[in-house]
Amino acid sequence: MKKNVSIALMLVVILGMLVGCGEKSTSDAEKGNKSGKAPVEIKIATVGNEEHQSTIMAKLFEEELEKVYDGDVKVSIYSNGSLGGEREAAEGVKLGTIQMTVVTSDGALPAWVPDIQVLSIPYLFENKEQAFKILDGVMSEQLNPKFEKQGFKHLGFGELGFRHFTNNKKEIRSVKDMEGLSIRVQEAPIWFALMKSLKASAVPVSFNELYTALQQGMVDGQENPIASIATSKFNEVQKYLTLDGHTYAAVSMVMNKSFYDGLSEELKSAIDQAAKNSIPRQRKAIDDKEQAYLKQLEDSGMVITDPDKKSFVEATKDLYTKEEVKKLVDPDLVELVMQNK
């Protein structure tokens, strides 16, 4: 009898251990999935390659989100335009088929928030510090509500950098040398007005098709920040680089607003914080690389010119007051930026 009792007790102990192990296994499985449901997935679309500013922004956002949120979320980055060009990516976010994208602020986004084209007003900023102050202050305050009305949650501005012209025809020493050149621009009307003021022809081409367009001579040149020119290897199909710095280019991190609003308060707060933390990291990363990229371009054989910038400023100084531009960007916003930089 005692033997049977001992055996029974042993079986109870063993069964208890097995149940305990089972409970531990379940706990481990749910450690990263506290709800027991599939994790929230955030798909981020970028058009650039792994070294492009937009993709770096997306990666740093992912890193920061992992630091500040210990929950059920999975970030998937789709780079190299795998989900389409910037217009398609922005449309996907608006429709909710893509949760988030990082795109050129004054590229495709003016289709919904025209005033973001204030960044396309030439020679508005003298340096990056002025640009950061305006982007993180007046611009965010003025434009974030407009993005929300269009179905976007604007999470902040990262860096592309000051934009410069390249071409394959001639060295540009002053604004008069721009006359007659065909220049690829972003798909936004204000860029057409800018090229018109420089007496050049504006040709809209998707960024992920730009290398081929330059290679085949569909356009004479293009304009982009140094990092974009280097990482996209435009130096292989362009001879001349003109450091005129006509506009400061930013990238916008935008998320589908309905998706954002449907998240827990904890996750929304984490997303906001991750965006805030990643922006200065991305700006510094791009800035640190810029001089190395410039040397790389020069070593590759590009002719790099510091032009007569005053001639460019003079040719474009009244651009924001022209009727066709006033229809796109409120001149009061331009003047507000000028007063606060």
Automatic annotation (TrEMBL):
<dbReference type="InterPro" id="IPR004682">
    <property type="entry name" value="TRAP_DctP"/>
</dbReference>
<dbReference type="GO" id="GO:0030246">
    <property type="term" value="F:carbohydrate binding"/>
</dbReference>
<protein>
    <submittedName>
        <fullName>TRAP dicarboxylate transporter, DctP subunit</fullName>
    </submittedName>
</protein>
<dbReference type="InterPro" id="IPR018389">
    <property type="entry name" value="DctP_fam"/>
</dbReference>
<dbReference type="Pfam" id="PF03480">
    <property type="entry name" value="DctP"/>
</dbReference>
<dbReference type="GO" id="GO:0030288">
    <property type="term" value="C:outer membrane-bounded periplasmic space"/>
</dbReference>
<keyword id="KW-0732">Signal</keyword>
<dbReference type="InterPro" id="IPR038404">
    <property type="entry name" value="TRAP_DctP_sf"/>
</dbReference>
<dbReference type="GO" id="GO:0055085">
    <property type="term" value="P:transmembrane transport"/>
</dbReference>
